[in-house]
Amino acid sequence: MPYTLTPRYDDNPRLQELVGRLRAYLTDELLPYERAHGITPESRLDRTTLEGVWKRSAELGFYGISLPPELGGQGLNFTELCALKEELTASGAALSHSVLGDMGGPLRVGAILKYATDEQRERYLLPVVRGERACCFSLTEQDAGSDVRRMRTTATRDGDSYVLNGHKVFSSAAPFADFAVVVARMADSEETYSAFLVDLDTPGCRVLEGAVPMSGQRMEGDLVFEDCRVPVANLLGEAGQGLRIGIGRITLNRLLHCPSLIGAARRAWDLSVAHAKTRVAFGQPLLALQAVQHKLADMATDLYAARSMVLATAAKADRGENIAVEANMCKLFTAEACFRAADQAVQIHGKDGLTRGHEVEQIFRSLRMYRIVTGTSEIHKNAIVKALV
Q: What general EC class does the enzyme of this chain belong to (predicted)?
């Protein structure tokens, strides 16, 4: 099919139908709801508001849609999931992260279901799938970001419990989560890490308001553990599997972040075209200026390249093949390319693009952030060369 900025999926009728219904939900329901309640990407969201989105999305079949049918999903493959994720951010909806369950929902726990015991699934994970509970993932520390092995949060075995001590930062969804997946270093070893399911109301566990990232979204929290006792039954997987669970999830996330970035850049394109058509300078619309046309051409070309890489890698993942190298390549290229597109959008909008509160300005800040989130561009380059050379 010829390339279009707004993709079509004529070769996949199921996906075409899902995308059509998702676009209708976003346009007819979610965006009007956000406008009526003054919700922006920088709003402080309460649990009631989020639960409303979870429940409505579940009614429409979108919440946890990529999970297997036995868990309430539709078994979407990665290619189809990427298509839906792009549509969400391309809509400009501030609550788009809660429609499929990215923020604290089913997509957060889907990758760890295979490590959970039957009891853990029933008590923790399945309620998340049903939209009854929310979770966060806690790996990062102040001095342990890209180099996760520098973490200082420890887990000490004491009878039928593990005792956690430490301080985690940038735990997305922590402000409204019920429990966390916490990766900690075993106290008796400098090189062994384990993962635990920790109820956030457990004595010795405190949730603090986290730093506000440059995107302005208030989704982060700090978790502080002071002699926090966690039952042995809450060990996720086997002792020593913590980094495999954590980093394995991050590898897939690096791919699945990409369509969201592409969608945001696509939104910046749409806003830029609309602005260039209506803004008059020197007696003609901006779109008549060759310099502006070239910027739009560069934006479209970057989006085409990024989407092509991501869909090719998603198809490889759907075949069950290893995508460790390609996931790093996708995240590296997509984060850089989409930021370039956002930068061009700011340039096209002029003073409006520099104004705090303008949608293009917020997209610019958000996409700049993703050149660091889930791995810096430099970390991706290191991983690519290490794997290939």
A: oxidoreductase
Give bridge partners of residue 162 from the DSSP assignment.
157, 230
**pLDDT tens digits for range 156-203:** 999 999 999 999 999 999 999 999 999 999 998 777 999 999 999 999
**Amino acid symbol at 368:** R
**Directed axis angle between helix 78-90 and helix 242-278, to 10°?**
40
* DSSP sequence for 69-86: GGGTS----HHHHHHHHH
DSSP for 121-177, written as a single string: IIIIIHHHHTTS--EEEE--BTTBSSSGGG---EEEEETTEEEEEEEEEEEETGGG-
Where does the pLDDT of residue 272 fall: very low under 50, low under 70, confident under 90, or very high at 90 and above? Answer: very high
The CATH number that domain 244-388 falls under is: 1.20.140.10
Does 323 have pLDDT greater than 80? yes
Q: Among 189-193, 247-251, 375-379, which stretch is predicted with the lowest mean pLDDT?
A: 247-251
Structural domain spans, the chain: 13-112, 135-240, 244-388
Cα separation, 341 vs 364, in Å, equals 9
Q: In the block, which residue shows the tokens 């200026």?
A: 289
CATH number attached to the domain at 13-112: 1.10.540
pTM of the model: 0.93
Task: Give the contacts of 307 (CB within 8 A, at least 6 positions apart).
Answer: 7, 86, 259, 262
User: Which helix (H) or strand (E) is 194 found in, with range?
Assistant: strand 193-199
Q: What is the mean pLDDT of residues 124-135?
A: 92
pLDDT on residue 157: 95
Dihedral (CA of 173, 175, 176, 182) sign: positive
For the chain, report the end-to-end CA distance as a whole number of angstroms: 36
Fold for domain 135-240?
A: Butyryl-CoA Dehydrogenase, subunit A; domain 2 (2.40.110)
Reported confidence tier of residue 316, pLDDT bands at 50, 70, 90: very high
- Asked if 329 and 311 count as a contact pair (C-beta separation under 8 A), the reply is no
Look at residue 181 and give its three-state secondary structure. strand
Are 135-240 and 244-388 equal in CATH topology?
A: no
